[in-house]
Amino acid sequence: MSMPTPLALILILNGIWTIIVWPAFLRRILKDPRARNENGQPTRFMTIHLMLISTSIILGVATAVIGVRALMG
Questions:
Q1: Cut 0.85: pTM above it
Q2: 38: helix, coil or strand?
Q3: How wide is the angle at C-alpha 50 spanned by C-alphas 45 and 55, nearest 5°?
């Protein structure tokens, strides 16, 4: 199955956007006072956000790879 070039480019742009945006959000989460308790231990707030961010980045990379492969072949 082939994919039209504009759709492949949308996938690539979406992947790039995701890879750029989520790490900046991660930096804000790590600085948030809700991220650690009084003992410096990670809280559920941090854990959940780390899971969301890592999942989004993985999906962003996969989306970009799909877009690139669609352009190449």
A1: yes
A2: coil
A3: 135
